[in-house]
Amino acid sequence: MEPYAFNTGVVFPQPGYIEGVRRLADGYGVVLIFDEVITGFRVGLECAQGRLGVLPDLAVFGKAVAGGFPLSVIAGRRPIMELVESGKVSHAGTFNGNPVVTAAARASLDLLSANDGEVYGRLEALGQRLAEGLREAGEEAGVSVLVNQVGSVAYMHITNLERTVCYRDTFECDHARYQAFTELLTLSGVFTTWRGLWYLSTVHTERDVDEAVNAARKALSVLATP
After folding, report:
1. Which of 5, 33, 109, 159 sits CB 3.0–4.6 Å from 11 for a disulfide?
2. CB distance 160 to 183 below 8 Å
3. What is the edge-to-edge ordering of all strands in the sheet holding 145-150?
4. How far apart are CA 206 and CA 25, in angstroms?
């Protein structure tokens, strides 16, 4: 499971939900696996599990962990991981332990963890700046938008909903209109995914965020034109 439902609109877990899943898994002897392919090292140095305070038995990572190099990671509790080490469970792959990619991951994690991960404070501030700017741009243009943001990731919906509590809520969002919005953004030199995800990285600056928000303001004003 995704601890934050990033693939379906950055839906936040309801209070006590993740903790309840942890208790159920423990009670039934079930392995709890977190999909942190998107959240891992984007929302914090300790990832989503650190922000939420709930540790899974296994977690999978990718994308951000090596700063753009193709790498996936499986991490977990020692009793489970020892099944691989002992050979009871096979973990074969052509690119396992690729030295170039693992070196990139080491460099990326060194950068992210420097000074106790202080870079995440800047990323959090940039994420909030982006989310607030997109909300203001929608209000100015008269287009109802909802922006969910966690750390360096934001998800923008064109919808009258005030919040999303599950993936079904996203069915009420205007996806066709949002896709038109992203096409208008591209004309202004801003590329983002058509489904609503906005990613920030350590190289982005406040100026980059402000330019993206201005492009969004221009695009939303075009959408609002009868």
Report:
1. 5
2. no
3. 145-150, 153-158, 197-199
4. 42
3-state class of 205 per DSSP?
A: coil
Q: Alpha-carbon distance 215 to 96, whole Å?
A: 42
Closest CA to 72 of 49, 40, 45: 40
Would you say how long the chain is, in residues? Answer: 226
Judge contact between 37 and 59, C-beta under 8 A.
Answer: no
For residue 198, the SS3 value is strand
Which structure tokens are listed for 166? 């599950």
CA–CA distance, 112 with 67 (Å, rounded to integer): 10
Give the Cα separation of 97 and 104 in Å (integer).
12
Give CA–CA dist 18/1, Å, rounded: 10
Q: Is 23 left (phi over 0), alpha (psi -120 to 50) or beta?
A: alpha
Q: What is the pLDDT of residues 37-72, one digit of tens each?
A: 999 999 999 999 999 999 999 999 998 999 989 999
Spatial contact of 96 and 70, defined as CB atoms under 8 Å apart: no
166/52 Cα distance (integer angstroms): 18
- The residues facing 150 across adjacent strands are 153
Closest CA to 11 of 216, 197, 209, 201: 197
Contact 143, 160 (CB under 8 A): no
Neighbouring C-alpha atoms within 13 Å toward the C-beta of 62: 7
Q: What percent of the chain has pLDDT over 70?
A: 100
pTM (2 d.p.): 0.91
Q: How far apart are CA 148 and CA 70, in angstroms?
A: 27
DSSP character for 63?
G
